[in-house]
Predict the structure.
Amino acid sequence: MTIADLVRPEIRALQPYEAAQQVDDTIRLNANEAPWSNAADRFRRPLNRYPEIRPVALGESLARYFGCDSDRLLVTRGTSEAIDLLIRAFCREGRDNIVTTSPTFSMYAHYATVQGAFERSVETRATDNFAVDIDALLDACDDSTRLVFVCTPNNPTGTVIPRPALIELLERRGERSAIVVDEAYIEFSDEVSTVELLQQHDNLVVLRTLSKALAFAGARCGAVMGPVDVVRLLNAIQAPYAMSTPVVECVEDALQAAGLDEATRSIQSLVRERRRLMDAVRQFGFVEHVWPSAANFFLVRVTNSGAVMRYSEQERVLLRNFDGSLANCIRITVGDPDENDRLLRAFEQIEASRK
């Protein structure tokens, strides 16, 4: 048995959409495309023609960048589409469930709800930097648990799950569930990607994105990586022509050596700014706690999150606040030095108002 056997039977039987044939140096009268180019078309590939069903060259470039075989990777519109594809593929409405940690990225539960699947959430330990209890995570699983989502570094806490804990989760759960490791923020940490474990663990699925470290959030490009048969099934349910020509071309350019070198320098700069900003924020009296972070953001607890949000908005700075178990907690994304200084000015106003 493999985790592909956990995929819904109707998805396993599904044949990919058969699009119009695409052959270079031919007259294409088979795809209902316009025969003229738009005046706004400034791309290497003509926009009056459909893009590839799946961008093969881009997929190969991403596979090299992330460090896996190209047949183990599907290019997706960010990690959000990958999450949606996985839940639609694995979860039967009203029967199956996913297991997540709490707090974590809310889109896991969102897409489970859309699919009619159930979510089982396991609380992390806030007093221990939101550490994940692997035993509790496994205890939450049952025979209908198709997917276990772990985000590392986690959003919104910035917590990293240690490699030994991830391996323990993979080994103890085995092929009874797919273990989905969301690494959207890994470039800002000192961790090595779990992509290197794909060959040893057939129940591992890894999500990566270009939105953060490559500063391509507006392009909506990422990847899901896993067993070849699972990737093939996800390919069958992804929409045809999912990646637009402009996105494909700009990502191809970003993955060239110069673009990657620039991204590396930017990541290093942001990590330094993260350290500076966290140190500065700790000095304010209304800040009760600053949790460590391995991402491009960090989480703080304040005495009055409403006041912090109001003063920050007056300074034209937007932050993200939470409720529930994270009441009075605010997630601060690290900006450039000027943006971070502006936030600190807002915090100085809050401090002055308390005296």
Summary: The two ends are 65 Å apart (CA to CA). The CA atoms of residues 109 and 336 lie 32 Å apart. Residues 3-12+20-255 form a domain with the Aspartate Aminotransferase; domain 2 fold (CATH 3.40.640.10). The longest helix spans residues 257-281.
